[in-house]
Design a protein that fits this description.
Rossmann fold, 7-stranded mixed β-sheet, 4-stranded mixed β-sheet, 11 helices, disordered N terminus, disordered C terminus
C-alpha cells in the first residue's frame, strides 16, 4: 500500500472514530431552564449508532417530562476532524446531575465517547453524580470483557487511540458494566418505547430526591406508625385521603409528617410541604398535599396536623 492510500485509510478511520460523540453541544431552547448553568441529564452516545433513532426519542421524551422541562445536554453535530477534545464537554458532564451513557455496538470505537465515559465515571467517584447506563443491543458482559461485536469494534480502532485512552477507556468500560442499568433487549422484549418510559420515570425519581425533606437518620419508634399509615394509603378502594396527626408537643408529629411526604413524593407530579401554617393562618400547623393524574382517574392525598 502506498503512502497516499495509507493516509486516506487513516483519515477515514479517524472520521469514523470521531463521528457521533457528544462534544459539539446543542441544547434545545426548551431545555435551557433558567440559565443556572446546570444540566439535569447528560447523554453520551455513538452518533452513527443511535443519533437519529433511540437517542433522539429519549432526548425528546426527557425534555417533555414533568411540569418543568428538564435541561438535557446532547450534541447535534459530530466533532469536526482535527478538533481537540475540549474542556466544554468535561464541564457539561461535571455540571450534570445524571449521566446516561448509551453503550451501543460501536461506542468503544470512538475515543471521544471513551473520554466522555472516563470523565463520567470520575465524576461518579468524586461527587454526587448519578450514572444510569443503557446497554443498547449489547450485553454488559461483552462491555466488561470486550467481547463480541462490541469488543471487535474497540480492538479494530485501538491503533488510532493513545495508550492513555486505551487504558482509561478499558477501566471505565469495566466499571460501567457493573452498574445497574438497562439492557435494551431485555426490557419489554426489546420494545424501545417501554425502555424509554422506564428511563424517564427513573430520571424523574432521581431528580426529585433533591427535594426530599431533611429528616434524621437515627429515628426510633416511627416504623410502626409509618407502616400503619402507608397500609391505609395503599388501600385501592380509597381515592381521596386526608391524614390527621395529633398529640402533645414534642412527640414527633412534624417528623412523621416529613417521613410521609418523603415516602410519597416520588409517586406524584405535584407535591408541597407547608410548615408553620399556624403562624400565618388559622389552619392546622402542617399541611402536606400531593396530586397525581393517572389514566382514567385522579388521586389526591392530604394530611394535616
Amino acid at each position: 500500500m502506498d503512502r497516499g492510500q495509507s493516509q486516506g485509510k487513516k483519515k477515514r478511520a479517524e472520521e469514523e472514530s470521531t463521528e457521533g460523540a457528544s462534544t459539539s453541544s446543542f441544547i434545545s431552547p426548551e431545555a435551557t431552564g433558567v440559565g443556572s448553568g446546570q444540566y439535569d441529564v447528560f447523554l453520551s452516545f455513538r452518533g452513527s449508532d443511535t443519533r437519529n433513532t433511540f437517542t433522539d426519542h429519549l432526548y425528546h421524551s426527557l425534555i417533555k417530562a414533568g411540569t418543568i422541562p428538564l435541561c438535557v445536554f446532547r450534541d447535534e453535530n459530530s466533532i469536526p476532524i482535527g478538533e481537540e477534545f475540549g474542556s466544554e464537554i468535561l464541564d457539561a458532564i461535571a455540571r450534570s446531575k445524571i449521566s446516561i451513557p448509551i453503550i451501543s455496538e460501536n461506542y468503544a470505537s470512538s475515543k471521544w465517547c471513551l473520554r466522555e465515559l472516563v470523565h463520567i465515571m470520575d465524576c461518579k467517584k468524586s461527587a454526587s453524580h448519578i450514572v444510569l447506563p443503557i446497554f443498547y443491543k449489547v450485553s454488559p458482559s461483552d462491555v466488561r470483557h470486550l467481547k463480541g461485536n462490541f469488543g471487535n469494534a474497540f480492538h479494530s480502532s485501538r491503533e488510532h487511540f493513545d495508550e492513555k485512552d486505551i487504558q482509561e477507556g478499558q477501566q471505565a468500560l469495566n466499571e460501567v458494566s457493573h452498574l445497574i442499568g438497562w439492557e435494551s433487549q431485555k426490557i419489554a422484549n426489546g420494545h424501545e418505547g417501554k425502555l424509554i418510559e422506564h428511563v424517564v420515570e427513573n430520571v424523574i425519581s432521581k431528580l426529585r430526591e433533591d427535594f426530599q425533606l431533611d429528616v434524621s437518620k437515627q429515628l426510633v419508634g416511627l416504623d410502626d406508625r409509618m407502616k400503619e399509615i402507608m397500609n391505609w394509603i395503599d388501600n385501592p378502594s380509597i381515592n381521596a385521603r386526608m391524614i390527621g396527626i395529633y398529640g402533645m408537643g414534642g412527640i414527633g408529629k412534624t417528623t412523621l409528617a416529613k417521613c410521609i411526604y418523603n415516602q410519597l413524593s416520588n409517586k406524584f407530579v405535584h407535591v408541597s410541604f407547608l410548615p408553620d401554617v399556624r403562624e400565618t393562618t388559622k389552619a392546622p400547623r402542617y399541611y402536606v398535599s400531593a396530586k397525581s393524574t393517572n389514566i382514567g382517574y385522579t388521586t389526591e392525598q392530604k394530611s394535616s396536623v
